[in-house]
Amino acid sequence: MFAPFRLSVVTPILQLARRVAAACSLMVLASASSLAELPYELISSYPHQPALFTQGLELYQGKLYESSGLYGYSKIVSRRFPPEPTDSITGTALPPNIFAEGISQYRGKLYMLTWKAERGLIIDPQHFKLLGTFAYQGEGWGLCASVVKGRKDHFVMSNGSNELQWLAADSMKLINTLPVTDNGKAVDQLNELECLDDYVIANRWHTNELLIIDGRTGKVVGKLDLSDLVEAANKTSPLATEAVLNGIAYDASDNSWLVTGKLWPTIFRIRFTLPTLPALAAH
Ligand SMILES: [Ca+2]
After folding, report:
1. Among 20, 107, 140, 267, whose Cα sits 20 to 30 Å from the Cα of 227?
2. How far is the CA of 9 from the centre of ligand 1 (A)?
3. Helix and strand element counts for the chain (H, E)
4. 245: CA distance to ligand 1 center in Å?
5. Domains of the chain (ranges plus CATH)?
6. pTM listed for this prediction
7. How close is the Cα of 98 to the center of ligand 1, in Å?
8. pLDDT tens-digit readout, 196-223
């Protein structure tokens, strides 16, 4: 079913990285007009395969895993990260009826959504073998495994609406639906996700924003405006309309975050401080 393949080495884009470093001050200050907008620090830049229509991004055991969408072109790829010029990208081309969406690692396996098919794939990250499937309800866009000591593990899944679905990690059954709101207003078009502790970090489709969501309540507790990175990625060649910011992966080794976009030539490493979450009222 899945045919492994190897891609050639990614093209270095050191010139772009230099321009980005020159163009962006190391600390981008928050806008005074938005109390929730967070500053971030640009740490470094890396080449990204610009043919990838990024739908999911995940770091696991020193490798960066990425799912790439579109019917007839979907694939999962991995590479050592940070990459070296001599590295290859390995991966698996998916059958033409599969539209790859969000991906997340849980207990050594990759879980991947397939947009409207309501059927996810469980894949071995070493050899890209299909290990199993799971059902989900509605569209599947972004996915992240939420593992917090003291409570049951679950996945968080987005579907393009303002609602995040919680799926039990042991059964992939729907256990909760959480509306996401910003100052009481629904925030829709939630796309690629990353879970860390009680936070859910989300790309919002067709925007330059990263949302920091309290995963317990659905409230947006912070936002990052990554317009400067979008502009920097756009400099080597004009980006297509759908080449939007999408893809975020947490790097626990240095408490930083990798961000990229669909068809982008660049992955950026940024760092920011997560807002403290409020204590929940006892009940
Ligand atoms: Ca992710």
Report:
1. 140
2. 23
3. 2, 24
4. 12
5. 3-259 (2.40.128.630)
6. 0.87
7. 19
8. 999 999 999 999 999 999 999 999 999 9
